[in-house]
Design goal:
CATH architecture of the largest domain: 3-Layer(aba) Sandwich
Strand content: 15-25%
CATH class of the largest domain: Alpha Beta
CATH topology of the largest domain: Rossmann fold
Distance between the termini: 45 Å
Length: about 230
Amino acid sequence: MAKLKGPRTVYVCSQCGAQQPRWLGKCPDCGEWNSFAEEKSGPARADSSPRGGLFRMRETAPISYQDIESQDDSRQSSGINEFDRVLGGGIVPGSLVLIGGDPGIGKSTLLLEVSDKLATNYGTVLYVSGEESERQIKLRGERLGIDPKGLYLLAETCLERIFEMIDRLDPKVIVVDSVQTVFSMKLESAPGSVSQVREVAGQFLMLAKNRTVPVFLIGHVTKEGAIAGPKALE
């Protein structure tokens, strides 16, 4: 009987996601220097979900362009005019929005305020935090003077468990703070690695499109001002 091979070591470029069997000083794909980091690559864990997705995907089929109804009027206002302007006039159902910025600049505070207004006006909002406890978020909300009935907080970093809670709660809007703290049990690499960030973002993108639910991902930036993780995330 053939033995199951364990995870192997690969080196992944933090800028473009290119993989090499050994460390290189310069990435041959994007030209970035000192961007390779060691990661483990191997078969999925026995308790992980299928690679295709962590939820039941809706059936799709080609549809004529002329048969598609315009939905310009379906944009949802966040209740903050400047935030709506940046999004092109409001929040589009089924969209995935990446909110990036320096640590401490106010990303979490902004999304908590937006979550408050959306929960009040549109329904259930799930705010997932991998960096703060529910109590810490509640304290920040009290300082902001918010008390929405439809806002639910979840302190969790495991992608599979987050998706289980989404299935139970069926929220209208999802906020993830931050994408670098969430990990999938399907991968051996650590949270925040290139492969984890790419997998997490990809799964949330499929979730947003299949459920027609807007998803906001908060992302940290590096000292160079780029979103931490693969360049494709931007």
